[in-house]
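Quiz preparation item.
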């Protein structure tokens, strides 16, 4: 069982500020993920011993880059990064998009057990999804390469919207695409993990 103290300590090591309630919810999310993973294969088996750092704390590194009140998580899978971000950003609303009903069953259960009122899961093909109200920020973790992701995200974003993509250490910004005002690169290295990765932060023109 994952303790809230362990989550809080991992967050502190990563220089992320979370309160006691958030630490408790993140610990419960981690335990649910472990329990369901045995049947649903939500994350790699090799990640089970480092779920807190590899998936939960890693997801939180995008929090400081979020803009506005409406956030979409493209290809949320096991609710990553959407669920951890929703836990520490209770005043923002998160739409978690995925085409897998099996994964969304897990996400719905998490929403119920954690009492998350700011999360809406949606089964959809991301490339075809068009929201009735555009998003302020779109996030995506380990779904596709940046150029393809930007082309999927752009139609969902408000005119002043932002995309935050989790990428590998060698990832390059989108090329030959329209609608880009500014691209920032945040190099992320977390305690307990050997591999550095990048957050690509793209502001729409």
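Solution:
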């Amino acid at each position: 069982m994952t303790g809230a103290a362990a989550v809080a300590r991992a967050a502190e090591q990563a220089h992320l500020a979370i309160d006691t309630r958030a630490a408790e919810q993140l610990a419960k999310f981690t335990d649910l993920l472990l329990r369901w993973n045995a049947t649903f294969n939500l994350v790699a088996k090799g990640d089970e011993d480092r779920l807190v750092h590899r998936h939960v704390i890693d997801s939180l590194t995008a929090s400081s880059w979020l803009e506005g009140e409406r956030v979409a998580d493209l290809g949320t899978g096991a609710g990553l990064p959407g669920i951890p971000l929703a836990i520490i950003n209770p005043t923002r609303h998160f739409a978690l998009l995925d085409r897998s009903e099996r994964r969304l069953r897990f996400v719905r259960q998490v929403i119920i057990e954690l009492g998350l009122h700011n999360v809406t899961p949606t089964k959809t093909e991301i490339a075809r999804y068009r929201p009735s109200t555009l998003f302020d920020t779109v996030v995506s973790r380990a779904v596709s390469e940046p150029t393809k992701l930007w082309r999927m995200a752009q139609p969902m974003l408000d005119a002043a919207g932002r995309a935050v993509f989790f990428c590998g250490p060698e990832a390059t910004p989108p090329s030959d695409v329209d609608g880009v005002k500014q691209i920032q690169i945040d190099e992320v290295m977390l305690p307990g993990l050997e591999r550095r990765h990048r957050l690509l932060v793209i502001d729409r023109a």
